[in-house]
TrEMBL record:
Residues 195-216 have a biased composition (Basic and acidic residues). Coiled coil: none annotated. Keywords: Membrane, Transmembrane, Transmembrane helix. This is TIGR02234 family membrane protein. It comes from Streptomyces zaomyceticus. Residues 178-216 are annotated as: Disordered.
Length: 216
């Protein structure tokens, strides 16, 4: 009569994966959207948003204002969103949900501020008053560029990254500790062995509060 050896059946690769395929895709999408959106906001906020002319000494000179002069809100919120994007991986459970919500709100707030700044003339009026020396000076021929709307588009990408984190964040891995693929606790650290024939090992065991004669 022959013997049948028990051969362990290999588990499917998908079952051993730390993050499901859908989780990996949503994670990559959130990282891409958030990083790209923050980059677009930070770069476009430094561009010229508004242009016009100011009357000085019977003539007129051109005046302009960049996004940071019009409103600093999109830049500030883009930095907050970028920090929240990476903080998502440092927290879990409720903390991850709260950080993901902060990420989404940062994108929404930056988009709203950019859209409102697209029609704001306050920054140009202040620049005209500074140049002319007349606090009542106003800008003529006011026009706005497309950069506020580019900023808003970048902010929408940050918003989408936050929505991805809210929807799929529970399946994403977290930083810290070991990769808990099987969900089992880490094996206890094995105590160092003591050689009773080596005096230095006996002293080290006594320093650790162990009985060097135990088990010998």
């Amino acid at each position: 009569m022959g013997y049948v050896s028990a051969v362990p059946v290999p588990q499917p690769r998908a079952a051993r994966a730390a993050v499901p395929t859908g989780g990996r895709r949503s994670l990559a999408a959130a990282l891409l959207l958030g990083a790209l959106g923050a980059t677009v906001v930070l770069l476009s906020a430094g561009q010229i948003w508004a242009e016009g002319t100011a009357s000085v000494g019977g003539g007129s000179i051109p005046v302009e204002a960049d996004g940071g002069t019009v409103t600093g809100v999109p830049t500030a919120l883009a930095i907050v969103g970028l920090a929240a994007l990476f903080a998502v991986f440092a927290v879990r459970r409720t903390g991850r949900t709260l950080v993901a919500a902060l990420l989404a709100l940062s994108g929404a707030g930056a988009a709203l501020a950019a859209v409102l700044g697209a029609s704001d003339s306050t920054a140009l009026d202040a620049e005209a008053a500074r140049i002319s020396g007349d606090t009542a000076a106003a800008v003529a021929g006011l026009s706005h560029t497309a950069w506020p709307y580019v900023t808003a588009a970048g902010a929408v990408l940050i918003l989408l990254a936050g929505l991805f984190a809210l929807r799929f964040g529970k399946s994403w891995p977290a930083m810290g500790g070991r990769y808990e693929r099987s969900g089992t606790p880490r094996a206890a650290r094995k105590a160092p062995t003591t050689d009773p024939d080596r005096p230095e090992d006996l002293w080290k065991a006594l320093d650790r509060g162990e009985d060097p004669t135990h088990g010998s």
